[in-house]
């Protein structure tokens, strides 16, 4: 299931890989941005705490400016821009309640100690904690006494930084409370929007680049699949895409031209061989008529017929890959019935047992040749042939079954190869030159189909014959 969902094309796989990598990179970037924002918020709160500790100590020493005191008073009265002055800075003999003395905030303490050192302060002891503002006892007690402050419902959920320092061993604890700044509104939405924009831009550019590469490759693949050595594609495939792709297409065009030229030369050579051999064979057939011995004349005629038939099979096998006649829509049942009638007229035991009306594009002459080869093979080894035509899975299936000895399982594949026979001799009485099955398979493949052989078995498991099956696509995708 997962494999079917996974794209199979180069374009789809590269797009999926880049999309996944881009999303992971943007997720990592979002996490880093979030952590940086949280760090800035903490640093701002720690800076505020250091400011409160330093200025609180100075104000007690009489150094606090009047303007700063008035600003703190107004802020405390409003209760909206920060905490009241009485909570922002406190001096007590013990650490404030709510601050666990065992809490160790190493990074925060180090940062706060560095800030205080810049102001000339070197605390003996220091404790820093970040809690929920609603969990701080001092802040809750202040809110309980001032209903107006308590009505502000946003302060309880905010993070509260509590920093306490003891300048000298055994001295008072100075405590600063700072509400951390709220998170920037819309930050997550901004990151998502940024991710989508980058994703759309990158994937669009990548798609256009990959299409420039994959489109000519797809055209080249289709050209290779359709190439049959004929002159159906006289014009070379236009070279397009990147330089490497254009070079590949140019090399393919050159190779295609060379193959077509070689096949043309082969056809010319085969035609010449067929002409040069059949002419003296015809002359020999005439000359043997002068032989007086009937048995000798018959043997000589049979030998000439064997040579002629083998030559026809060889030439047909060589030409089957480059048919000159076009596909024509043909009623397959009628074609098979016509071939079966040829054998019935000669008194042979050939029966068309099952048939359906199926019309598909095919080359009738070639398919008749394949059927004759398979039926003759069945009669030669099984003395009878049972032919049927059915429709299975969008395919026309022709079966020719006999009642002969079958073929050993380990030799079935070899029987479809040229010049391979189940009987050792080359006598036409017991078998031909071993080209009949090979030619039938080539004709089936010429029509986009297949030829398979299989033994049939009786009820007791013994071999009861051989069945040859030609399976042709219904869409005629030859």
UniProtKB/TrEMBL annotation:
Region (Disordered): 62-99
Biased composition (Basic and acidic residues): 62-77
Transmembrane segments annotated in the record for this chain: 187-210
Record keywords, A-Z: Cell inner membrane, Cell membrane, Kinase, Membrane, Phosphoprotein, Transferase, Transmembrane, Transmembrane helix, Two-component regulatory system
Compartments where found: Cell inner membrane
Superkingdom: Bacteria
Predominant location category: membrane
MF annotations from Gene Ontology: kinase activity
Limits of the Histidine kinase domain: 272-476
Membrane-topology descriptor: Multi-pass membrane protein
Pfam family membership, one: HATPase_c
Reactions performed catalytically: ATP + protein L-histidine = ADP + protein N-phospho-L-histidine
Gene3D superfamilies: 1.10.287.130, Histidine kinase-like ATPase, C-terminal domain
EC number: 2.7.13.3
Protein name as it appears in the record: histidine kinase
Native organism: Aurantiacibacter sediminis
